Each structure stands twice: as structure tokens, then as C-alpha cells.
Amino acid sequence: MKRLIPIAAALVAARAAAEQLPIEHVLVTVPLHKKTAETALPITVLSGDELHRAASATIGDTLANQPGLANASFGPGVGQPVIRGQQGARVTVLQNGTTAADASALSADHAVSVEPLLADSIEVLRGPATLLYGGGAIGGVINVLDNRVPTTLPDAPSGGIEYRRDTASDMDNVVGRLEAATGDFAWHFDGLYRDWSEMDVPGNPVLGDDERDERGTLQNSDGQTRSATLGSSYHFGSGFVGLAVSRLENEYGIPPGAHGHHHDEELEGEHDEELEGDHDEEHEDEHGEEGIRIDLEQTRYDAALHLHEPLPGLEVMRGFVSYTDYEHAEIEGNGEVGTRYTNESWEARLEAVHQPWGPVHGVFGLQVLDGRFSAIGEEAFIPVTDRREAGLFLLEDYHLDDWLFEVGLRLDRDERDPRGGAPDRDFTAFSASGSAVWSLSPAWQFGLALSRAERAPAIEELYSNTGITDPEAWVVHAATNAIELGNDDLDTEVSANLDLSVDWYGDDNSVSVTVFYNDFSDYIGLLATGQEVDEVPVYGYAQEDAQFYGVEVESDFRLASLAGGELRLGVFGDTIRGELDGGADVPRLPPMRVGARLGWSDATWDVWTQVLDAADQDRPGENEEETAGYTRWDAGVQFSPTWGGTDLQLFARLNNITDEEIRLSTSFLREVAPEAGRGVEAGVRLVF
């Protein structure tokens, strides 16, 4: 996959350097605005140079090399994030604190509608974050922050532009950003244009094909993306109020085999290497030889209000409102629209930080959502459904000597109102957490977090193909080439969670180790029924208990001062296991991974190399194929001279140096769509 350096993060780093400020990240996703060391929540933050190196065209690929995080690609146009083995409906992607409101959770071939290339920072809460953001976050939260509603009034105009080209897919990428102020009004504009050709891969994309070439091409994997945002805010003595509007257009292809290759979903099922016979021929004719393409459009409006000391007893009050109009069409090879998905939603969030009550300090708030999802066309298997959600939350902390204690509660009410005769369902969910952080010394910190998280079933889990009594009328879900049957009797799923962390901070070194355990009751997933219709397997959503556990390690060491710069080494790794109550392995989990990064940098140069070794995934789940391990090498260099009062940055990167064949065990398309082969990225960025 292609990696692009975000100009937004470069602007933040440049401002901090110009003002000689330390870059200390304050968490936005946690409403109390703590630093990462001030909470027991397992949090990953990408900003500054680290975000520069990692940022890519998809959020999944951007986060893929972080401990506990992985990518579930569906060709280069789609990269869905995986947090501790959870993906889809269990991972909530936010944009500045409110949900992305797309259709990515519905199916593995739907792209997430946020642009990490435009981010100032990305914050990830690994593990259940239902307390802060509701039941959909039972696997974790990803918050992409891009300052589209300007939070400060800039003293002078700032901005930048970047061009980059990637040889692995002939990708051209242009990113621009401008921020300024007129009087008490702050302005923000950003734009992105990206197009790419079919991606080069090592050998034949189809696993096990004997007719392998030295160099292959992933057919129908090209695409084009355009994005633009305009935002403004009015600043006054006690805060600011602002509004932003953004437009995203994303058109990309689904690689061959995606809509004709069977994979199971969340838990287990029958795995058919090939579906032979008349049904396959009809399916091929239906979609055409050119394959399926996704044409995505989204218009989003965001409003924000920040007030300092608005009422007696309150330090800060923050309000967010977003309206999102999302639509994408699945276009068949003959140019006709097969299915059109829409998701129209309103979301509002209110946070109030109260002044300390003695040693107790905290935040309370309200979050509401109202939306309508629809899928219309020949592959529409989910009825038009209205969705209403409301949640109340409270988070408090208490300092006692070297200890910090946190306690939180949340109550959610979720309503699902489908058309076409399926029953309405209402759910009440309760989540709670308690944690402690012990600072034994300035160098050592220990954390313990316990939580109970509860999630209401998603629309597709309840209503896929429900109300259709004739099996011949059941609709095939093309992305998985299976018939999926919802279950409108599903109950909420509940997880009991434990996180243990140890952090060591030396003079200029650090090591972090986290151990986690998640015990799910009534985990929701697709199970094989043993039935087939025209040789297409039938699956039904059902509930079964499951357990997940793993370890995450991250470190950074200063090795030496060398030639006027610093030589640093970072070592990282993770491992996760997921087991069903009956003893079977949960499918599509990441393998055990170990990586290292060696870099040297001074005021002008940054030179680095990184290796990531992934083991075989030999616990793929029942009737799933194992995935071979791989070792990936990357290297890069950046030259940053000062030029005419601006920061000019020239950069280049060699990706997948050994042209390794990489197939992700998290991907539905691992047998037909490997990751990109060897490629060179090079570009120029001008920041002022």
C-alpha cells in the first residue's frame, strides 16, 4: 500500500519548532484533555514525525504498523482498521469527535470516508471505548483530528502544498492547506487530489496459481479521490463557535475475485475454495469481466462551540453537531448500478468539564444520533432502517499522592426501526469502567483498567434478508459471495475487559508493555447453517461467547550522538489470540509481529530504515486457510532546508525493498489480492 506524508501534521510541527515549543500531545478524544501518561486507557497517538512516516491513503494502512493495530485491505482502495482483532461494526471511526457516518462497518469492501493525509493527529483508544462513544466502540475508537473548525486564532497565515508520486501504482497525489485570520474570524481550507493505476504486486495475485510471473498487476485496483474542506470560526473572550463543510468523492475498483470468492464473516463457517457450476457462470456474467467499481460521495457539515467557564461550577463546555449525507453506488462491469447505499445522519455531542470537587475532577455529557440507512438495487439485502441512539456518560478522576483513580459510567438507548415488516428493536446498554495509575517514580508507571462494555446489534446483524421466506429470493452478498441471514432476536453483546500496563521512561528512552484480556458474552457473528441455495452457502447471525487476549510492546532508545545528530532505535511487537467458547479460533486475526526502526536525524536530515516480521497465521479459524508470514523492509530519507523563510522538504522512500509477497490474514481478499510489491515514493513539500 502507498504511504503519503500529511502536510497538516507538518504544519503543526513547523509551528511548534518556530515557537521553540515542546510537542506534548494533549488528548482530544478523552474529554478531560489529558496527556497519555495521565490515564490508564490504552491509547496510541500518531502526530508529528511519526504521523509523517506512517500516513497513507487509507486509515487502516496508516495505523497498520502500530502495536495492537492492523489493516484489513480489500484492494488498495479500501483499508479498514483492525483494533486488537476487532473490525467492522466494533470499531468506531470519528472525525473530530463525531462518527464518520459512512457504510464501512456494513461490508469489508466499503472504504472509510476519512482522509488521514489531512490529519493533524490521529488518536486511537485500543480496546473498548463504549464509555465515551457508545456501543459501537466495543472494539476501540479512532479519532482523526484535522482542525477543520479552527480551534485557535492564528497570528499569521500559514499553509503548505505537497506533491508525491508512487511507482507501485503510478499514484499522483497533491495535498494543500491554508489557514488564516481576518479580525476575530479564523479560516481553514484544505484540498486533496489523488489518482492511481492498477497496483503492481509480486507475481500472480491469485494464491496457488502455478502460472506465476516475476511481476504481476492487481486488476481493477485503480481509482481516484477528490476532497475539499472549508471551515471558519469566530473567536471571542470566552471561547469560539465555528462551522465547516467538506466534500469527498472517491471512485475505486474491487479486484477480481472479490465478488466471486467466498470468505466467512465474524466467527466461523464453511470455506469453499471455488464455487463451481451454473451459478458461478451466471454470477460472472452478471458482474461483467471488468469487475465492480465503487463510486462514493459524501457531504458533511460540522459545527462546534467551545465555552470557558460558561456557568458557575463549569470549567469548559464543548458542543459538536454534524450532519452527513453519504452515498455510494456499486457499479457492475456493464456500467449499470447494481446497488446504491445511502446513510443520512445527524449527530450531536455535549461535554461539560466541571470544576474540581475537592480532589475529584471530571466530565459529563450527552450524545445523540438520528439517521436513516438504505440499500436499493439488485444486491440490496438490508431494508431501509431508521436508527436513533442516545447516551449519557460520566467520567471522574481522583488524585491521591502517587495514585490516579478513574471511574466512569455510561447508559445508552438504541432504537432500530426497519421498513418492510421486520420488527422494531430497542436496546438499553450499560457500560462502566474503573482504573488506577501508580507513578512509582518519575521513571516507572503502572496501570490497571477494568471495564464492562455493552453493544447493541448493528442493522446488518438484525435485518439482513429478514422477512424473506422463499430461499430462492434470498439476496447474495456479493462482497463475501454468501447469503447472510439476519436475526432480529439478537441480544446485546457484553465484554468484561482487563488491561495491565507497565511504562518506563529513562533520560531519553522509553519502554511500554500492555497485556489485555476481553471476555465476550453473546459475541455476534455469522455461522454456517449447512444450507446452500444454487451452490451459494447460507450463513446466519448467531451469538456465542468468545475470549481475546494479547500483549503489545513498544520502545524507543537513544543509541548515540553521531555526526551532529541522534541515532535512535525503536523496537515494537504484538500478539493476539481469539477463541470461541467451543474451542475454535476466531478468523482473520493478525499474526504475531515483531518490528524495529533505526533512524538518524539532525536539524536538516532524517534517514531511517524499518523492518517488520510477521509470523504465519496458523490459527486461521475453522475451514479458513492459513496465511504465510512475511518480512517487510522499508527505508526513507528526508531533506529539510530552510528556503526563503519557508520550510522546503524533499523526501523519498523505498517500500517493500525485497519485493516480498505479503498477504494480510485480516483481509477477506488475502488469497486473491496481496499487498503492493517494491515501489519508490518521492515528493516535495513546501510549508510556510
The outline comes out as: globular
* Structural Rg: 24 Å
Beta fraction: over 45%
Which regions contain 5 or more consecutive residues with pLDDT less than 50?
Answer: 1-5, 14-23, 259-289
Oligomer: single chain
- Mean pLDDT, to the nearest integer, reads 88
Describe the structure.
This protein has about 700 residues and is mostly beta strands. It has a single domain, classed as TonB-dependent receptor, beta-barrel domain (Maltoporin, Chain A), CATH 2.40.170. It has helices at about 5-20, 50-55, 60-65, 130-135, 280-285, 460-465; strands spanning about 45, 70-75, 80-85, 90-95, 100, 120-125, 140-145, 160-165, 170-180, 185-195, 200, 215-220, 225-235, 240-255, 295-310, 315-330, 335-355, 360-375, 385-400, 405-420, 425-440, 445-455, 475, 480-485, 495-505, 510-535, 535-560, 565-580, 595-600, 605-615, 630-640, 640-645, 645-655, 680-685. It has a 22-stranded antiparallel barrel. Helix 1 (about 5-20) runs antiparallel to helix 2 (about 50-55). The longest helix has 12 residues, at about 5-20. The two termini are about 30 Å apart.
